User: Which sequence fits this backbone?
């Protein structure tokens, strides 16, 4: 059967993509951020997971406000790199696993998650930035992917608890998949940030570090947070953090921390946490 071996929570910011593409990772302002991901890259390189389920949000690239699904799951052979308005980034497209994706979609729908199944989907910075922060790539990416897009930009949004339950349903689906596949799940989304209005640039590093503590040790308390509470404390766009709960909901209760990092001299708190699923390490 397939199993979830790890979960990774990370922020995503479009400017990181530009810096990556221009090869400026060693500039003083950016080096601490990129270096923060190196232990995760090394660890993933050793574990070589077969599939990455990436829970992210689309910022108006493939989905737009006229029709915005609450939860959308990819079931395509390939996922193209989307153009967010400044041209296609020089990254390889992503290989999907339609058999695994369709299994996941069937399982989620029969588990009462009314998802949108996408047989064609392009992916943008919410997906791309975490991928190239966590994996090295060549002509192709070393892992197959399943994009899971969550609406965190057009209200009404799913609750934090609903995102957590989606994670639990994803775990059930993965464990019912008959082939031996090792799966990593990513939950992406900026930590504290606000990109509009009088509070532009609002950061709350205390909130972010508390969130990093809780996502590891006591994630249930985070599922009780309302959108309003998150936005008031950490900025309007910090509501993206509910997607980290899908990652954590897909993991067992006991996890082992592989790495944690926080870097916040920019407009978004850049957090990272990598957790190994202890259920998977007990039964290699
Ligand atoms: Fe975002």
Assistant:
């Amino acid at each position: 059967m397939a199993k979830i071996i790890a979960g990774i929570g990370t922020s995503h910011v479009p400017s990181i993509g530009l810096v990556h593409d221009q090869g400026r990772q060693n500039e003083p302002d950016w080096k601490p951020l990129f270096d923060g991901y190196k232990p995760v890259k090394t660890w993933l390189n050793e574990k070589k997971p077969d599939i990455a389920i990436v829970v992210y949000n689309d910022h108006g690239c493939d989905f737009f406000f006229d029709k915005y699904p609450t939860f959308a799951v990819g079931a395509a052979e390939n996922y193209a790199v989307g153009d967010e308005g400044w041209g296609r980034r020089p990254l390889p497209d992503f290989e999907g696993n339609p058999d695994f994706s369709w299994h996941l979609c069937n399982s989620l729908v029969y588990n009462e998650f009314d998802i949108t199944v996408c047989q064609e989907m392009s992916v943008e910075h919410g997906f791309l930035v975490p991928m190239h922060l966590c994996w090295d790539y060549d002509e192709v990416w070393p892992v197959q992917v399943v994009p899971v897009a969550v609406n965190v930009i057009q209200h009404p949004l799913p609750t934090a608890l609903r995102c957590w339950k989606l994670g639990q349903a994803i775990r059930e689906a993965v464990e019912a998949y008959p082939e031996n596949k090792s799966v990593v799940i990513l939950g992406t989304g900026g930590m504290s940030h606000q990109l509009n209005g009088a509070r532009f640039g609002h950061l709350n590093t205390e909130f972010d570090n508390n969130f990093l503590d809780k996502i590891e040790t006591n994630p249930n308390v985070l599922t009780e947070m309302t959108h309003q509470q998150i936005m008031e404390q950490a900025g309007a766009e910090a509501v993206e953090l509910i997607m980290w709960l899908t990652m954590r909901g897909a993991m067992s209760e006991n996890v082992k921390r592989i790495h944690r990092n926080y870097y916040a001299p920019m407009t978004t708190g850049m957090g990272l946490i990598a957790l190994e699923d202890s259920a998977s390490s007990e039964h290699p």
